[in-house]
Amino acid sequence: MARMRMKKLEEFLSGVDGFEKPKILLEQYPTPPHIASCVLYNVQAQYFDLEDKLVGDLGCGCGMLSIGSFLLGAQLTIGFELDPDAIDIFRNNVTEMEIPAIDCVQTNVLELTGSKWENAFDTIVTNPPFGTKHNAGMDMKFVETGIHLATGAVYSLHKTSTRDYIHKKSKDWKVKGEVVAQLNYNIDNSYKFHKSKSVDIEVDFWRFDVTEKEL
Amino acid sequence: MKLSTYNFLTSKAIKGVKVGYPLKLTIAKKDVVETEFNPTFIERLLPKLDWNTVYLAAQTVDLADDIPQEQPAAVADNEELLQRLHHLLLEIDVLEGQLECPETGRVFPITDGIPNMLLNEDEV
Ligand SMILES: C[S@@+](CC[C@H](N)C(=O)[O-])C[C@H]1O[C@@H](n2cnc3c(N)ncnc32)[C@H](O)[C@@H]1O
């Protein structure tokens, strides 16, 4: 059970402000409210991984997934983000929506492995940078960090084209990875990374059960 | 920044720093936000926390009388203590202040509730 209906959740998340001037190098595009509400709703309704949990959000940006986690009952959500401009918007969103149980730490996600944050969280959610020419494999580095930080499950979005590779990595890490949903992700035309105005890319929503992880 | 978050922060990523923990917390401005009390959550959180730093945080916000200096063996039946821990760890919100590395003195500012742990390239 989830404490809020999916439609209601989407309504709330539509009020979350996005990036003002998205930075291409950091791959700043917010998870669209429709996708965020759909995936988070299932994280709770199918797997009970949000309500009463300590949740971490890697690359939290303006807070879409952190705020969604709170709305679905997370006891405390901690977002990690390095960009000060995104953090300003995160702060405004959390203040405006009067959300008491969300924290944010300004830091580089890639520095969290081996820190005190290891095994701190029940659940990690992330919409990682998919990785471009400049930072190939960034999405996998975020997931690997997530696996270090979580004791229960890690949820992440990846391009469908990388599915086989991720299955292989999951085996290496002794985590049970499964594609929970396949989505059409529309990277908004405000984010002019691609030449065309607006592109749909195929994206998988993954769940990694990390209870028997070895890495 | 909640004091539960504070419990996990270190300056270990700085080049040459061995432990970088606990960071010295100075508070210029704080707030109290009410959140739902969930005893099971606190019970599950405690083993992940460093008790000395929990106590240190309590001292910093003048709540040391509420919290035992030594970690109690069992808390499950101690509803009153769980409630105090809930208040200390989840309801006190540090808005302005700083965290200081115990080894190098490097200061990490807390601005509008968010600690900035980012290091410059020459520090890592
Ligand atoms: C695809 S966006 C997702 C934003 C937000 N989580 C959402 O779902 O709307 C990726 C985010 O990761 C941040 N980011 C990229 N590299 C990072 C790093 N090394 N450490 C922390 N954050 C990073 C970006 O600034 C950006 O906000």
Automatic annotation (TrEMBL), chain A:
InterPro entries per record:
DNA_methylase_N6_adenine_CS, rRNA_MeTrfase/Polyamine_Synth, SAM-dependent_MTases_sf, Small_mtfrase_dom
GO MF terms here are: nucleic acid binding; rRNA (adenine-N6-)-methyltransferase activity
Alphabetical list of SUPFAM superfamilies matching this protein: S-adenosyl-L-methionine-dependent methyltransferases
- Methyltransferase small domain sequence ranges: 51-136
Question: Which Pfam families does the entry link to?
Answer: MTS
UniProt cross-references to PANTHER family, sorted A to Z: RRNA N6-ADENOSINE-METHYLTRANSFERASE METTL5 (PTHR23290:SF0)
Q: Which family does it belong to?
A: Belongs to the methyltransferase superfamily. PrmA family.
- Protein's recorded name: Methyltransferase-like protein 5
From TrEMBL, chain B:
Task: Specify the domain of life of the species encoding this protein.
Answer: Eukaryota
Q: Which InterPro entries match?
A: Trm112 (IPR039127), Trm112-like (IPR005651)
Its annotated compartments are:
Cytoplasm, Perinuclear region; Nucleus, Nucleoplasm
A GO molecular-function annotation: protein heterodimerization activity
Q: Which GO terms describe its biological process?
A: rRNA (guanine-N7)-methylation; tRNA methylation
Give the record's keywords alphabetically. Cytoplasm, Nucleus
Q: Which Pfam families match?
A: Trm112p (PF03966)
Give an example GO cellular component term for this record.
Answer: perinuclear region of cytoplasm
Name the family: Belongs to the TRM112 family.
What is the name of the protein in this document?
Answer: Multifunctional methyltransferase subunit TRM112-like protein
Name of encoding gene: 101895717
